[in-house]
Structures are given as C-alpha cells and as structure tokens.
Design brief:
Radius of gyration: 21 Å
Number of helices: 10
CATH class of the largest domain: Alpha Beta
Strand content: 15-25%
Order of helices and strands: HHHEEHEHEEEHEHEHEHEEH
CATH superfamily of the largest domain: Periplasmic binding protein-like II
CATH topology of the largest domain: D-Maltodextrin-Binding Protein, domain 2
Shape: globular
Structural class: alpha/beta
Helix content: 25-40%
Oligomer: single chain
Amino acid sequence: MVGLSGIDLNLLVALGALLEDRNLTRAGARIGMSQPAMSGALARLRRHFDDELLVRVGRGYELTALAERLLPLVREALRQMESTLDSAPGFDPAVSDRQFSVTASDYTVSILAEPLLRRVHEIAPKVRLELDPIPPDMSESERGLIKYDLLIGPLTYNFPGRHTVLFRDRFVCVVDPGNPRLKDGALTLEDLEALPHAVPTFGHSLPTPADRALNELGVRRRVQITVVGWLTVPFVVSGTGLVAVVPERLARKVARTANLAVVEPPFGDVALVECAFWHPKRSGDPAVRWLLSVIREVCEQL
C-alpha cells in the first residue's frame, strides 16, 4: 500500500460510496460523478490498497475481506469530515429549538424513530422532529421534496434530490406458526405460489425489490389482501393461512407480538437499501447536515 503522497483525498468520498452502494452507477450518482469517473476512481483505489475491493458475483458486486474491514473505518472518517463542516456558524444543536420536517415510510419510523429521538434528545434537547408519511407522488419531481428537510426511503423508488445510503435490510417471509405449508421451519417457491398473500400498497405502482425478485423467478402470487404500508402486513397474517414478504427488521420486531414465524426466503437474499434524500437547496444548511450525521450515527448502531 502506497502512502498518501499524490493521493486525492476526494477518493475517500468515492471509496465510501463504492463500499456502501456496491454499484458504480449508483455510487457515482450519489456523489455526482459519472460512471467512467467512478471506474477511474475504483482503479486508483485498487492500486492504492493493492486489493480488488469489489468483485463481481453474478449480476452484482461483493466486498472483498479488506473492503469489509475498511467500510466502518471509511464511514467514521467521512463522519468526522462532516462533523467538521457541521461546526459552521449558524447552528448549535445544544441550544437550537429548530423543528425538522422528515418524511419517511412507516417501516422506517418503526425502525429508527425510537433510537433517533433518544439520540437527538441527548445532544439537542430543544430540537423537535416532525415525522410525516411519504406522499405517493414524491418520486415524480423535486417540487414536493423541498417541503422537507429529509426524506428517508428505499433507493429503488427513484426519489428525487441528492441521497446517501443509511442502512440495509433484507426480505423474509412471515406466516402463522400453524400454517400447514410450513415444513421444518421452511417454505418453498411452490408454497409461495400456493399460499394467499398479504401485500402492502404505497399509493404508487412501483415494485419492491422482493416483488422484482419473485417476478424474475416466475412466481405468481395470489394476492388476497392489500393494506397501506408495511406495519399492518404482519398483523393481518397472524392467525390466518396468509403469507407475506416483509423487511427482516420489521418481521423480527413484531414476530412475538403478532405470533408469527419468521422464515428464510426461498428466493435468496434480496436487499432493501434505505437512503436519506434531500433537495439540493438543503445541501448548504448546516442544521440539515447535522441531522443527517445523527441519523447516520443511529443507523450504524442498527
């Protein structure tokens, strides 16, 4: 590994995006670099670390062992850089009484609200958070985004504005423990076709990553009930013959209360990537940068 002499420290930003997104196009879009520029950055980083960092597996990329070790170090370095910027005059979290407006899915609120509110209260006791559901037309333009300090939602819904990855989840299946199709704690793709499904709706027709995975496998689901958002889905499955495909963190959180079995998905690991989005006009607001840094800190503890 060579020294820092002659190394552009902007590569640290590129490295963080590459390791988190594991995709050159998405990483470049997040930090405003073209795909050729990201390819060049990756080549320089590979030379610097004498390691591939990203290796192609199927249609995607996986991190090498070194890249896995680098990821938390890079996150911390970027957070320290952002903390330096967040110390700019105009916002002091210790004394501010600002109210932040954040729009997020019910899933995001169920996962983040409690630890985020606790952390904000610890370091900014007068700051207030207003959490609103994501409007169904939010993916159409940036006009709606300007009303909010931040939007937190899945990467695949193509929300407008700039964004950064916060955390990843994966999809699992939930069924009643007495479901006759549940054999040795497992379900097959044939079971998913045979069982009636409970599915969420979000006011738009965009598929979830799990929807796309099942469609690619040719699994045709019998949708028996549709509910608004993620939170209700596990509870309508409880005590019935239904099955649902939901994010794992939500499934684990409610499994005991709803008396559900959480089952490994027969379609393999499918990622749900949650991001923070913001209007470009918010980029220069030190208060928004501070809130984003706190959210990232909380997400890293998940």
